[in-house]
Amino acid sequence: MKKKVALVEDNVPLQRQLVELLNSQPDFECLLAVSTAEAAVEAIPRMQPDVIIMDINLPGMSGISCLPLIREKTPEAEVLMLTAYEDDDNVFRALKAGATGYLLKSCDAEELFEAIRDVHSGGSAFSSHIARKVVRYFQTPIKTVANTKLTARELQVLDLLATGILYKEIGESLGIGEDTVRTYVGRICAKMHVRNRVEAIIKYHQ
Known about the structure:
Number of domains: 2
Oligomer: single chain
CATH topology of the largest domain: Rossmann fold
CATH class of the largest domain: Alpha Beta
CATH architecture of the largest domain: 3-Layer(aba) Sandwich
Number of strands: 6
């Protein structure tokens, strides 16, 4: 089954190039491409894509600002930021808003394809320079998350999530199935009052 992709990019030549690249892959289908966050908020919930590729600097509302609106109506979709911005503020604002990956536009086509596949299968994807920022952030001393009441197994899952590995790999590490891992992640997010695994990891390390 093809992975359904939506693209939000206001540079029209780049948008067309990306649509062509996505549709060149046998496992991708670009359902729509829009140029503004406002158009994305209106169109994406109707299409229910698996992965949303989102620019930050858009006319009108920014890509980061529209993320909560989109994720409210398409909670199952993974969001991959594709942008020229690599400053800490934009990176962590995007992750806190619900993005599960962050690529720079300097990436090559294969890196983009692999990132889409990674986030679709339950992982996270970052350009190497961005990954270093995230690693540095998570190397700060860990504080106990108050009032979450996570079980020992849920804490194990959360620790493994923080390494960026896939649900399948977490399951193999703990000797449980991938569906069981997803169930644990759902419980973790509910107990921590967050919307997704990235927010759970960020809150755990605050």
